[in-house]
Amino acid sequence: MPTPAAKLTRPTLTAIVVGSMVGAGVFSLPRRFAEQTGVAGALIAWGVAGTGMLMLALVLRTLALRRPDLDAGVYAYAKAGFGEYLGFFSAFGYWASVCVGNVAYWVLIMSTVGAVWPALGEGDTVVAAALSTVGLWGFFLLIRRGVREAASINRIVTVAKVVPVLVFVVLALCYLDTDVFAANFHGTAHTGSLFDQVRGTLPATVFVFLGVEGASAYSRHAKRREDVGRATLLGFLSVLCVFASVTIVSYGIMPMSEIAQLRRPSMAGVLEHAVGTWGGVFVGVGLIVSVLGAYLAWTLMAAEVLFVAAQDDDMPRFLRRATADDVPVRALLMTTLLSQAVLVITLFSKDALTFTLRLTSALSLIPYLLAAAFAAKLAGQRRTRRRGTGELVVASLATVYTAFLLFAAGPKFLLVSFIVYAPATVLFVMARREQGRRLFSERERVVLAVSVAGAGLGILALTLGWISL
Asked: What pLDDT is attached to residue 200?
């Protein structure tokens, strides 16, 4: 998180987007796709996901230009478009999604090391949780020391984390077996129809695209406002090409039934099958470097969201506190505490990595949906003045896409998201009381009632066994 004096240029903002997006998700893509679809379904899924997220990236670019007064990205857009309470939920939901995503990073690291140290299992054992806890608080102390040290590490790791992924794609292309690729083209009997394959795969793409809003989150530090939108678009397109390539080339190395059974991170198993043991070790080391770098970037971003929300009086004032080095220490502490709580919860889940990945996606979709809807609202206002037709189409497509992803995620993770969202209202009430304001307007009471009802239903579903972690 740069200091206000250190304004960010377009290359740096682009690096932030790429650094935020390239993380744990990409190393698990081969298995996650092979469990759901063949080559044909994967191509369609990436086409749909790429188009949908491109619309969202264009929305963020447009909003950066149309509303340069709004900082902190998706949170600020939700507040401007739909009021303070939904804006608060957007800020909290985005922050919570980052915290849960950070736990996924530690689970994947421990699963990777677990290949040589069985006590770590797949990142879901008590030993793994204990070591992850040490990592959580070690990074807290690193960032707490000062922004300059953390930012320097982030710039180095952003480059280092991309190299293993690119090497994987090149090597996989060299060893690609066209017969295996053809056999995987239509999927298998258990994957169902092509529509079912695509629908089942799309939620897996959400997590890997988280971070597309990275430049928007740091817009208050940008040297030029227009660089925010350009960095978002360039970073997204670069990462989309890499992610799609990782998935597709894997189908030419192993039968998809075998890929679906690989230990996480599945990229390691695919490359080991192609080139030998050193390939798995190479990916494992690359994953650890990549994930630690992504963890750093996301932790900084999460603290930034809470800090800016507190400055705008949408979070309690205690979150405004920052050190002389511009580190929002209390926001950083809350980020680490929530990640610690989620880490403990993973010990009770059936599949810790899948649980954290899908919950992260579900939590982030509501802030994305509100940002896209706000863009559609602005474009509609411009359209009445015979301008903004193209912007309205793009914003509408982004809104429909994010709404469809909520549907595709299924009711389980939406209900669990409500369980996370509803208690957060306590922070909103604290902020309102500090300002001596009325706690809820009539419209806000409706939102409150929906969130509490959703949380109650989610708790009931967990208690009765209708859904499980």
From this structure: 75
| Dist CA 250 CA 246 (whole Å) | 6
Residue 205 contacts residue 217 (beta carbons within 8 Å): no
Phi, psi values for residue 222, rounded to 5°:
-70, 140
Q: 441: left (phi > 0), else alpha (psi -120 to 50), else beta?
A: beta
Specify the amino acid at residue 421.
Answer: Y
**351 three-state secondary structure:** coil
Q: Would you state the pLDDT for residue 153? A: 56
Amino acid at 9: T
Per-residue buried b or exposed e for 239-252, using 16+ beta carbons within 10 Å of the residue's own CB: bbebbbbbbbbbbb
Query: How many other C-beta atoms can be found within 10 angstroms of the C-beta atom of residue 99?
Result: 25
pLDDT 10s digits, 303-332: 888 888 888 888 898 888 877 777 788 999
Angle at 298 between CA 15 and CA 138, to 5 degrees: 115
Which pLDDT belongs to residue 211? 66
User: What Rg value do the Cα atoms of the chain yield, rounded?
Assistant: 21
CA distance 236 to 244: 12
Q: 30, 266 in Cβ contact below 8 A?
A: yes
Half-sphere exposure of 407 (CA within 13 A, CB side): 7
CA distance linking residue 25 with residue 209, whole number of Å: 9
Residue type, 446: V
Contact present, 5 and 145 (Cβ < 8 Å): no
Residues (pLDDT < 70) of the chain are 1-25, 71-73, 146-161, 189, 207, 211-229, 382-388, 409, 469
Buried b (16+ CB within 10 A) or exposed e, 135-146: bbeebbeebbee
DSSP-assigned letter for residue 188: -
Residue 4 has a pLDDT of 41
Closest CA to 236 of 357, 398, 37: 398
Paired strand residues for 222? 8
266 membership: H or E segment, kind and range: helix 266-275
**CB distance 243 to 394 below 8 Å:** no
